[in-house]
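Can anyone check this?
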Amino acid sequence: MKTINLSNGVEMPMLGFGTFMIKQDCEQHVADALKLGYRLIDTAASYFNEETVGRAIRNSGIPRVELFVTSKLWVQDTGYENTLKAFDKSLKALGFDYLDLYLIHQPYGDYYGSWRAMQKLMKDGYIRAIGVSNFSAERVVDLALNSDTAPMVDQIELHPFFPQEDTITEIRKYGCVPQAWGPLCEGQKDIFNNSSLCDIGKAHGKTAAQIALKWNLQRGVAVIPRSTDTAHRAENIDLDFELSEDEMKRISALDIGRSEIIDHRCAHTARQLINWKIHD
């Protein structure tokens, strides 16, 4: 499993297993992913599966130090004191002594207060690395220039139809690693039957999904594909091949210049996520 060193030297796997929207049989899906060789598991307070994810990891028999676990802070819990409480709740739900990566899940609320709390938690040894999710380039830059620690990871939507090259270029200036959520476009735009991806796949004996994942990895973007299908999980980690420069360009040319999943700069999105409460 290839890894990348974050700005503080912490080693993060480039490919992991995402658990967004996995509630039913989540423990079994995570256990199966670990058996296949996944070593990064991504969850969040708002996924409502931290407890089952933690149990699967603890029961796997794999030493905790060999695994990389990510969770995220929801908008409702932003602010310094709220973040300390929310992190403690997540850590207890997972059943761990520390987290490898903790992210601010959305670019709303008092995320500056949250960032100060996360810096303290990292300094105190409860988190190995800290970052953000769904932050546009200017918000990453703003946080980096006004904090002691720049975000080490930005988990954003990155797939062949929305490569976000400009965002990646900007955040990398501050040592921030791009990590792709929805690297398979959440199955939208008929990605698994896309002619370009399928044609390239035939040349390598791979599926369109494998081509899309490899494209992100080759451009230095970490990926966290999610699948509840055993065969697909195995395919998603079987990426021992290389794309040519021409193939990479052909895939990048699929860019439509916008997201068709969610727009975090949209007022409706802000209202919807800010008003979504995950607890009383």
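Reply from J.R.: I decoded it. The longest strand covers residues 127-133.
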